[in-house]
Design a protein that fits this description.
single chain, Rossmann fold, 2 domains, 6-stranded mixed β-sheet, 8 helices, transport, ATP-binding, ATP binding, AAA+_ATPase, nucleotide-binding
Amino acid sequence: MESLEIENMSVSYQGKSVLSQLSLTIPSKKMVGIIGPNGAGKSSLLKGILGLVPTKTGRIFYKGEVVSKQKNLIAYVEQRQEIDLTFPIDVFNVVLLGTYPQLNFFKRPGKRQKEITWQALEKVDLTAFAKRQISELSGGQLQRVFIARALAQQAPWLLLDEPFAGIDAASEKIIVELLKKLRDEGKSIVIVHHDLHKIRDYFDEVILLNHGVVAAGGIEQVYTSENMVKAYGDALINFNL
């Protein structure tokens, strides 16, 4: 199977459980949204898959093999607040960093890696910004740069942690259209998202979390009043789905 298979994942921070024995199948070649209240473990799920946080229990498989042994399987776009935007680097070299996992130790990127970088910039329509310092970009432009960096890894899976936070509506529309195009080209895309009003427009399937899986699957199956109240509590009883 080409889906990501998560078995009994548990994550804790400072002795507090964030995810408890979570088991989940994430389908490939779809736009999958991860939703849930603050502190529900959405970002922890992505970081657990990537091995960026220690998991107390659990294994993640792709095509029958553990994910940790599959180089370049997953590209990751972290939250913008986790990135040092004061570092003096231009757009081209940020995207070029995405090619480094393909290189042998101590080998510098060459012609092929630079071609991949230009192709990624073309995908996100930012070739004209190649020599621009990242500190000079808008929020939407920055997110497109980070998506280009992820594309330069040439990974089949793309995981994004709240990519629309802090950007304007026009930029969000551009990025959503870009991600849908990438999905249509065969990429598997998983997005942590917080705006419940856009779930139907953005995603093929959703994963509803609250320290574990409340529901997962198609929009009509998951995005129900009953499930939302289970995850968010009585505050959403009158929420217009």
